[in-house]
Amino acid sequence: MAKQLEELKHPVKEELAFFEKEFKASMKSTVPLLNRITHYLTRHKGKQIRPLLVLLCAKLNGGIEEKTYRAASLIELLHTATLVHDDVVDDALERRGVFSVFALWKKKAAVLIGDYLLATGLLLAVKNKDYDILEIVSDAVRLMSEGELLQMEKSRRLNITEEEYFKIIERKTASLLSSACKAGALSQVLDEEAPEVAQMGEFGHHIGVAFQMKDDLFDYGLNKTGKPTGNDIREKKITLPLIYALKNTDRKRRRQIIRILKMRKKPKEKVQFVIDTVLEEKGMEYTEEKMNIHLEKAREILNRYPESPARKSLLRLTEFIGERDF
Question: What does pTM read for this prediction?
Fold first, then answer.
């Protein structure tokens, strides 16, 4: 899977390397502690899906400009800021298999580093008068916050519907991926009203929804270990596999599952009971089916463009999202 992801980057390999240098440079400070933390963050970077999308969508629509690199940096700065803050909110000691900033430098430093990254991204856009890109990305961050808060509210009440589930993931995950694709197109066509910008935003929306649904499937066993994690169940996050199972199981089991979700500490066998119910009621198959509908819609948008290395990579990216195990 990691090899497949590297292949996707091939059409913009040199541009990604240049972006990484620019991204690291944008975070430099005269404060040694800040530099230590940002160095740690860049050393343990993730899949870099968002900057990759910015660059590929720009290339698909004509080419890569200085504004494209700034858009990619802005997206990645704001995304990293939200991850650092999320770890504080969730008391998460790990991020991507390594210690989180929160674990190593504690709450105060983590909140401040998130604020610093956010401010750095905003200044980068303002200094270069990239107000159109800034508007797109700021709106995505607003939607992400709404999505997280809506999920918190529904987790407390345990009354989430399928429609509400999609509202949550469209905001908390799809919005930033959509903004990355729109920003990439906008950096090339330079017209916010251009159909290419809306089209790329729609593409990003569909892969973002699919990306989150794939993440939600990992809770029930579709990860690289092949074992269910049960983390969402422990955290009272009701995702589509469970929503579907609750809708289709009998009343007795539904009540049992709701009681389990309400427990502060959930024994292993209780979590397994919820997982077994989801598997028996075909919640995973239903979720995969819905995910594939979104991936197909994303492919339909790409197929409106002529053949090119960028289009080929984006098409492969839709396959990667559906097949990934991490």
Answer: 0.94
